[in-house]
Amino acid sequence: IEIELLGILSPLLILHWEHGTGSPLCNTPDNAPCVLDHPCASNIMTQIRNQLAQLNRSAKDLFIAFSKAQGKPFPSDMRKICSHGFIKFPPFHANGTEKDKLVELHSITVFFVFSLDDITKFQKTFIRKDQNLHSKLKSTMDILAGLRSNMLCRLCSGHNMRPTDPISGLDISQKDWFHKKKLGCELLIKYARLIPVLARDF
Ligand SMILES: *[C@@H]1O[C@H](CO)[C@@H](O)[C@H](O)[C@H]1NC(C)=O
Ligand SMILES: *[C@@H]1O[C@H](CO)[C@@H](O)[C@H](O)[C@H]1NC(C)=O
Questions:
Q1: Which of 16, 48, 66, 165 is the most exposed place for a label (fewest CB within 10 A)?
Q2: Hey, where are the domains in the chain?
């Protein structure tokens, strides 16, 4: 199975995302060579840092827009309700090599994208009217897709590897409405706390 590493996400990858949680990212063995169909931008590490900075700038607004859209009791009590969950992002070690940090950042990105994708679908279906939230979710997803594509390019061109860890997102499927909303806000609080660290230390 071939997955495009560059540019627009391949239909296969989109298919994986639409299946939501639990799909391994790709099925190639660890030692399969990675293939690029065109070279990475020469300033790719700068692009990655800029994308992290962009995400960092919008994380808090995303979280606020999310809480407003959920209705009572979320907007007034968001921090109290959502600060003590058990959601854990994959780890990040600021002292790692470039390659280690790219691999860790890639896992974090995939976990967040899978989770956010499920939450976005729920929000779109049940909380239709909030255009502000939907446009913030969409622009975050767009930046994440670009970030991920840049990381894969750099890992392939600079380190001759592609990450193969199977990563799942949160599973929100069995939860009632309140708990779906709560998981969404827990995720976004954790993200808003993590992203400044990533933007600083990557
Ligand atoms: C990085 O720091 C962690 C503790 O924060 C330590 O366990 C690890 O050995 C360090 N790794 C390197 C490569 O220095
Ligand atoms: C991340 O955003 C926060 C507040 O929005 C800001 O104070 C901080 O300097 C930013 N960090 C980086 C590395 O851009």
A1: 165
A2: 41-201
- Residue listed under structure tokens 């020469």: 42
Q: How far is the CA of 95 from the centre of ligand 1 (A)?
A: 6
Ligand having the closest approach to the CA of 201: 2
Pocket test for ligand 2, best of 49, 52, 54, 56 (most atoms within 8 A of CB): 56
Q: ∠91-181-80 over CA atoms, to 5°?
A: 75
CB distance 56 to ligand 2 below 6 Å: yes
Note down pLDDT in tens along the chain; length 202 residues: 233 333 333 333 333 333 333 333 443 445 567 888 888 999 999 999 999 999 999 999 999 999 989 988 888 888 888 888 889 999 999 999 999 999 999 999 999 999 999 888 888 887 767 889 999 999 999 999 999 999 999 999 999 988 887 788 888 887 788 888 999 999 999 999 999 999 999 9
What CATH number is given for 41-201 in this structure?
Answer: 1.20.1250.10
Residue 151 to residues 83, 121, 123, 183, 191, Cα–Cα distance (Å): 30, 26, 28, 27, 19
